[in-house]
Amino acid sequence: MGSANSVQELSGNVAVVTGAAQGIGEAIARRFAAHGARVIIADKQLDKAERVAQEIRAAGHEAQPAYVDIAEPENVRALRARVRDIYGPVSLLVNNAAVIPFQDFLSVSWDDWERTLRTNVSGTFYCSRVFLNDMLELGRGNIIIMSSVNGLRAQTGLSAYNVTKAALIMLAQTMALELAGRNIRVNVIAPGDILTQVVENVEDEVKALANIPLHRWGRPEEVAETALFLASARSAYTTGSVIACDGGLGAQLYPS
Ligand SMILES: NC(=O)c1ccc[n+]([C@@H]2O[C@H](COP(=O)([O-])OP(=O)(O)OC[C@H]3O[C@@H](n4cnc5c(N)ncnc54)[C@H](O)[C@@H]3O)[C@@H](O)[C@H]2O)c1
């Protein structure tokens, strides 16, 4: 487990992963740290973020926890100041934190709609804006945005969420174009059904799995592998891309 055995593909990077206290973000943080990045576990669940950071350090890698509510601009600015104090300027940002309210179009309230857009879209926009200052200072940078198959195809019962995940794709592509000349890449991951707390709530597992061409849930570690590819020089010619990690879910018109 020690760093001596790890491939140090991300050494020299300071990475912020939002929503890294659990689920997909946690897996990405662990993978990035194992590959040599110094990682900030940024989440509004500070106790869980502390535990994840501690476990990463116990494995011989570098990580520190930090509180942030990405829906609050002053929190995001404070996060940047804290990260600079600990590790210096950020070269790698994973915008992963999101809320996933299961509400259909006829039941979603104004407040829930606003909260979902504010967190998922405005929070991602603002984290990107704030940490871009570090990347411009460094003359290099890499931003990964966590969308979803729901950003490409509508799923009933997730009305506001679907809209935010589609908006994130256009945000990323616009940023990718505008930042390409500044040595900053921006890409999107579109996961399918990944085994985290979100999927654990699915009522009819047999039916859900039958709809997935690979007939199983994805694992957070598999999304982390996609994130590592996008974060590393292996994807040096890739920007403005949407990479699915979905067991084929997004490719089909109807389940066979
Ligand atoms: N699990 C899936 O099947 C799946 C599929 C497609 C996309 N995704 C996306 O992957 C990302 C992670 O999903 P997950 O399944 O790991 O979710 P999760 O709910 O297990 O974890 C999300 C984390 O984000 C944090 N968070 C939420 N709001 C925050 C805020 N305002 N500020 C800071 N932190 C906040 C939570 O505390 C939590 O630790 C999300 O963007 C989600 O939309 C997940």
Chemical compounds bound to the protein? nicotinamide-adenine-dinucleotide
Q: Would you give the CATH topology?
A: Rossmann fold
Total count of helical runs of at least 4 residues: 8
Number of strands: 7
Uncertain regions: pLDDT < 50 for 5+ in a row? 1-6
Q: Bin the strand percentage.
A: 15-25%
Biggest sheet architecture: 7 strands, parallel
* Gyration radius over CA: 17 Å
- What is the residue-averaged pLDDT? 96
- Helicity, as a percent range: 40-55%
Named at the architecture level, the CATH assignment is 3-Layer(aba) Sandwich
Strand order of the largest sheet: 3-2-1-4-5-6-7
Amino-to-carboxy terminus distance: 42 Å
CATH class bucket: Alpha Beta
Structural class comes to alpha/beta
CATH superfamily: NAD(P)-binding Rossmann-like Domain
Counted up, domains total: 1
Shape: globular
The SSE order reads: EHEHEHEHEHEHHHE
